[in-house]
Amino acid sequence: FVYQGRVFHGHDATRMLAALSSTDTLFSTFNRLALSHPIAARLSYPVFKLGRFASLMLRGKRLLDDPRRKG
Question: Which of 36, 43, 8 lies closest to 22 in space, CA to CA?
């Protein structure tokens, strides 16, 4: 994702999204505390990525095509 003109990918995006999240609920507070730490974001990102892939496959969906790879 892009924030203030800078592009974030992977675990860096996870960390930044957590750091920018609100603390309105217990879940969002836990999310912010746990994932805004760089090591926690780095370790949890592969698990989230696998979960996303498994969820898409179980629902019969495909990954989005990257338009930059077409050519």
Answer: 36
Helix-helix angle 38-58:26-35, to 10 degrees = 120
At residue 69, the pLDDT reads: 67
CA distance 29 to 69: 37
- The structure tokens listed for 11 are 């675990």
Tens of pLDDT, residues 31-64: 888 888 889 889 989 998 999 999 999 999 888 7
Element (H, E) at 14: helix 10-20
Token pair recorded at residue 6: 């800078």
Paired with 7 in beta bridges are 2
Average pLDDT over residues 25-29: 88
Phi, psi dihedrals of residue 6, rounded to the nearest 5°: -110, 135
